[in-house]
Amino acid sequence: MNKYLAEFFGTFVLVFFGCGTAVVCGGYRGGLELGFLGVVAIALAFGLAIVAAAYAIGQVSGCHVNPAVSLAVLISGKMSARDFVGYIVAQIAGAFAGSAVLALVVANTKTLSGYGANGYGVLSAVGLNMTGAIIVEIVLTIVFIMTILGVTSNKKTSHMAGLVIGLTLTFVHIIGIPLTGTSVNPARSLAPAVFAGGEALAQVWVFIIAPLIGAVLAAIIFKAFFLVKEEE
Q: What pLDDT digit, counting tens, does each position of 32-44 carry?
């Protein structure tokens, strides 16, 4: 149960601070209007949220805070099916809790609105179409999860995993924000979309399916070509 509570807390932190920063910056379009600073601010919020969560709960649950990460770990044989289900439930619950608290904050302001939902077409800052959104989310998820698998697979690098993973999440957000708002995390996408409703909710399937496909591909690629034997 401690592992599941840790995943709930970590996902709450990621969604509240990451999506919250997107809202403060005026949404992803607002981030672009603020220029490079706005995009980097949102990207850093997600990345630093992962760093904070990793060092807070990493020793308890591994700090997946992402169904795509848990799926890759399951495929890698480092997680039981029972824990996988428990992690997914906890992550989704944490994401909804983060969005709910963000909704309370937004409701008490006159200038802030939105929930940091992902999107393509009219919801993309650059008008990216659905096909482009699927491709970019798969690619970004592969890069993100292969980094996670690589840095945590060997004791020589595992001590710096939180920092490396956080920086990688920042890295993929910098390109992904103008395109889709960057998901690479089905839980992070589902909760804001439900709160936002409308077109964001209609499009959320892309940001659930594409990261899961990316996770499967990343796990397969890593096991086939890049697996480093952990030191005894």
A: 555 678 889 999 9
